Amino acid sequence: GFGILGSAIVALIVLAAFRSAIIDDVSAVDYCWRIVLGCGAIPGIAALYFRLTIPETPRYTMDVEYDVNKATSDITNYLQKTDTKDENEEPGNHVDVPKASWSDFISYFGKWKNGKVLLGTSMSWFALDIAFYGIGLNNGIILSAIGYADTHEADLNLRAYNSLKNMAVGNIIITIMGTVPGYWVTVALVDKWGRKPIQIMGFAVLTVLFIVMGAAFNPLKEHSIPAFITLFTLLQVF
Question: Residue range 95-119: average pLDDT?
Answer without folding.
Answer: 87
